[in-house]
């Protein structure tokens, strides 16, 4: 995925999202979590977008706190969510018991 630059000269830029299937709010920020995810059993998907397996963190996420420390925390949290999705996909494919 290309690097996303969201803020330029004090204004939010969302042109890079054109053509993507992720849902956004009325301001253009990416919606995640219970508002959009298709869901897997017993997996925390608070940072997953409307596209299964695609996650959004930091300033681009709708409802996020627009601060570096918050984005760093979301970056740490998303790793576990990605691992959870990968485990669940493997389980559904019959690879885990």
TrEMBL record:
Pfam families: Pyr_redox_2 (PF07992). GO terms for molecular function: oxidoreductase activity. Residues 27-75 form the FAD/NAD(P)-binding domain. InterPro entries: FAD/NAD-bd_sf (IPR036188), FAD/NAD-binding_dom (IPR023753). Transmembrane segments: none annotated. This is FAD/NAD(P)-binding domain-containing protein.
């Amino acid at each position: 995925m290309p690097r996303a630059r969201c803020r330029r000269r004090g204004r939010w830029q969302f042109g890079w999202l054109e053509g993507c299937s992720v849902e956004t709010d009325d301001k253009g920020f990416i919606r995640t979590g219970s508002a959009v995810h298709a869901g897997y059993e017993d997996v925390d998907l608070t940072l997953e977008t409307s596209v299964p397996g695609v996650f959004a963190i930091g300033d681009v996420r709708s409802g996020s706190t627009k601060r570096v420390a918050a984005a760093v925390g979301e970056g740490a949290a998303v790793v576990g969510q990605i691992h959870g999705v990968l485990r669940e996909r493997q389980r559904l494919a019959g690879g885990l018991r």
